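Forgive a beginner's question, but might I ask you for the amino acids of a protein and the tokens describing how it folds?
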Amino acid sequence: MNQELVTKKFPVTDRVREAMAVSLRGAEELIPAEDWEQKLARSEATGVPLRIKLGLDPTAPDIHIGHTVVLNKMRQLQDLGHQVIFLIGDFTSMIGDPSGRNTTRPPLTAEQIKRNAETYRAQADKILDPARTELRYNSEWSDPLGARGMIQLAAKYTVARMMERNDFHERFKAGTPISIHEFLYPLMQGYDSVALRSDLELGGTDQKFNLLMGRHLQAEYGQEPQCILTMPLLEGLDGIEKMSKSKNNYIGVTEDANTMFAKVMSISDTLMWRWYTLLSFRSAAEIARLKSETEGGRNPRDAKVMLAKEITARFHDAAAAEAAEQDFVNRSKGGVPDDIPELSLAGAPLGIAQLLKQAGLAPSTSEANRLIEGGGVRVDSATVSDKALKLAAGTYVVQVGKRKFARVTLG
């Protein structure tokens, strides 16, 4: 880029301030914020879109809606007119990302990577506008780099700086092995930013070190350094742990519409607003107005239905979302009597087995666990399969078998 444009100070207009607000909505950290503001101002003045990069390693065939938090942010910035780049890390997957690991991550085979990568684009297309998305694979520039290029790249960062990274530092201190190839991962991810001439890179909070590496390497290669935007990790259905398949507190983007709708309806009223911020495409003003109406007496269920329909429609379509709502209503009416016991319990977050015992729906926690294993426990019409489930503060219709019900308000 013309050095004069890089150093020139551009005016910050109302449109730039709006773009900054969109960028910061739900974000954890924007580094450096003043540089991103100037990039936005320059883009508006010159009419040249900014290049916004998100890289995902295809380490598993499917993604859940927790993974879509960064994709949602990409879509918001795409709608502002900028060029988004969806980067599939087919090369870096063969190394294995050490972020947050206390052991060496086993690298995937080329066959596993190819199989997983084939599903990623289709799932990303449910959020990003495919016609305005640049799809790239980092093997394009990583493979041609070769041994000589890899050595030259490795010379641009020191071991001391690499060991400042928390996971490496802790593993070294504990005497846990660190393989040399793991040092290559952040270098290769950073080199992606050089190859793509990225203006902004997005990632989860656990990716901060890798994202900063991109800034460092761009400066080393004489480019204007990218800004980085980290997004928080989404809490799962329990409202406590981050969304994870292993914790069974997730919504998969390929789940059927009825299940997806019912799972959104199962979250607490408190968690609902967090999900609105991170998952909804509604404007911040719309969400604030809806929250104000709810605090003023409107039933929070109305807002939850709107969120459930929006998320379900995104991964299916509007008709499927409408049908899922009707299915949810029918099951609620058909399975729950009009007059059921109502009670209040304290201790949120409360384990499901303990809740069943305290609500008088099971004589003991061991019996409650047996009922869960048998598929006989439902919360807000959704079958509970995780005995470790903890319910956050909120009101739930809890069902055991066909005849036992209670409307439990958990405080």
